[in-house]
Design a protein that fits this description.
This protein is an alpha+beta fold. It is 72% helix and 9% strand.
Length: 512
């Protein structure tokens, strides 16, 4: 398949109603997919941030507060209560317990922070928190030797205000103040900058997600309305088709609809028009056949009733003519006039009888060119006497048709006679007999260059009893058309006023 044919097929599909509906539904689906995807992504982000607050920053903030409180307790104990302890063992135990509580809180914060880094490893806030925790851990580690020296001194029984204890208390108190300040800064940072900003960001993101969802939802709704309107507009031609089908069903076979719109609608309109024409032709043919049958019966009955009286009149006229032998010329003229009218009526009744008793054709293979040539030789002299020339144009091949040779010959004689009469009224002209092959048909044209036939007369040319000739019976062309149709063929006429007329006989060719 060529690229052009593929492109043509794609274009035909795109212009179809199905393609329009599919594209509309696809656009609507994509829009709702975008809405749903955006909503889901925002929900994922909100869920991730909520999990970060719940499992990370929230517990971390509370633990940082607890660490600051423990550091404050340890600092206050060292600054205020340690020197006033009377029992060195109690002082050592309190100092150790308070420090251990602080260290445990610091270890808990570090574990929580480790879990937080698994959730959000590349977070800027996490990096700052890590620096705080590293500072706290370094500070606590730096104070550990001093605490251990104090604990050993107390364990040896040295008093609290001894040089060994006092020498270590200074660095411990300074270090604990720094740790308290660092823990307080961490707690404030987590509470204000992390948790507070995080909750504000969470609220802002939630608000943003809600607005985006609303806007996209409204966009999808508007698109749905547009798509619905478009689909309704695309399907609107179906109403015309339905109305046309109803009119055809009501018997208005001549009604036609415009063959436009999407490809399926245009094709369906074309088929409906074709069906209307076919039904109209079939209806016309049925009416014509019924009319011809009725005319045939009536003609047979009238002919039967008229022939005998006409024979009697003719016989009595001949007897009367013998009796009036030697009478005046006026009486003879009257008798001759009666003879002519009787002969004319007899010819008409014979034509009616032939129409009523038209036999079915006996089809057999027949070479058309020899038959047409013999016909031309038979009528040529008669046409020449009427100042009419006869031209014969036979096809290159010798087409063979399935026909009843006698009946087809009679049809062609009728058509040639009509053409001759038309040319005689003009004062002369040319009749052309032409044969050719057209698919599975053999076509014979009888063409004249006479005056032509008026457009308002053409549709009635094959009606029984319709004639443009004075005194014509109107059965010649009707009989000719019936014979051609009995052969499974067709008889058509084309005419241009002032240029001439062409009758075209089309009959089936012999199968190869």
């Amino acid at each position: 398949m060529s690229v052009r044919s593929v492109a043509r097929a794609i274009w035909a599909w795109k212009s179809s109603t199905a393609a329009r509906i599919v594209l509309a539904v696809a656009g609507l689906t994509v829009t709702f997919g975008i809405v749903t995807g955006t909503f889901v992504i925002n929900q994922w982000r909100l869920e991730d941030f909520t999990r970060l607050i719940r499992r990370g920053y929230g517990p971390l903030t509370l633990q940082a507060k607890d660490l600051a409180r423990r550091s404050d307790d340890l600092k206050a104990y060292l600054d205020e209560a340690f020197d006033n302890e009377t029992n060195i063992h109690t002082a050592g135990a309190n100092l150790k317990n308070t420090r251990q509580w602080r260290d445990r809180n610091l270890a808990t914060i570090q574990r929580t922070f480790s879990e937080l880094k698994k959730i959000s490893p590349d977070n800027r806030r996490a990096q700052r928190i890590q620096r705080y925790l590293e500072t706290l851990q370094l500070g606590a580690d730096s104070l550990r030797p001093h605490y251990e020296a104090i604990e050993r001194a107390l364990a040896r029984g040295e008093p609290i205000k001894s040089d060994a204890v006092t020498h270590e208390l200074g660095p411990v108190r300074d270090g604990e103040r720094r740790l308290f300040n660092e823990a307080t800064e961490l707690s404030v940072y987590l509470e204000n900058n992390v948790l507070g900003d995080g909750l504000e960001s969470l609220e802002a993101n939630n608000h943003k997600a809600r607005l985006i969802t609303i806007y996209l939802g409204l966009t999808a709704l508007l698109l749905a309305l547009l798509v619905t309107t478009w689909v309704v507009w695309a399907l609107r031609p179906l109403g015309r088709l339905r109305h046309a089908a109803r009119r055809l069903a009501a018997g208005e076979y001549g009604h036609r609809i415009e063959e436009r719109g999407p490809s399926e609608v245009a094709d369906l309109a074309r088929e409906l028009n074709s069906m209307g024409r076919a039904v109209e032709d079939r209806e016309r043919e049925l009416v014509r056949s019924e009319r011809l049958a009725a005319v045939g019966k009536m003609a047979a009955m009238i002919t039967h009733e008229v022939r005998n009286p006409l024979s009697s009149i003719g016989l009595n006229t001949e007897l009367l003519e013998e009796e009036l032998e030697g009478s005046t010329d006026e009486a003879k003229k009257l008798l001759h006039a009666i003879h002519r009218e009787v002969d004319r009526l007899t010819a008409i009744t014979e034509e009616y009888l032939a129409f009523a008793r038209l036999p079915k054709p006996k089809l057999a293979p027949e070479a058309i060119n020899p038959m047409v040539g013999a016909l031309a030789a038979f009528v040529r002299e008669d046409l020449a006497a009427k100042q009419v020339k006869l031209a014969v144009e036979l096809g290159d091949s010798d087409p063979i048709a399935l026909v009843d040779a006698a009946q087809l010959r009679q049809c062609l004689i009728n058509l040639v006679r009509n053409a001759t009469e038309a040319l005689s009224a003009k004062g002369g002209g040319t009749v052309t007999l032409r044969t050719r092959r057209g698919g599975d048909r053999i076509i014979i044209d009888v063409e004249d260059n006479g005056v032509g036939i008026a457009p308002d007369v053409l549709p009635r040319m094959f009606d029984p009893f319709f004639s443009t000739k004075e005194g014509g019976s109107g059965l010649g062309l009707a009989l000719t058309q019936q014979i051609v149709k009995d052969h499974g063929g067709d008889l058509a006429v084309q005419s241009t006023v002032g240029k001439g007329t062409t009758f075209t006989v089309s009959v089936p060719a012999k199968p190869v």
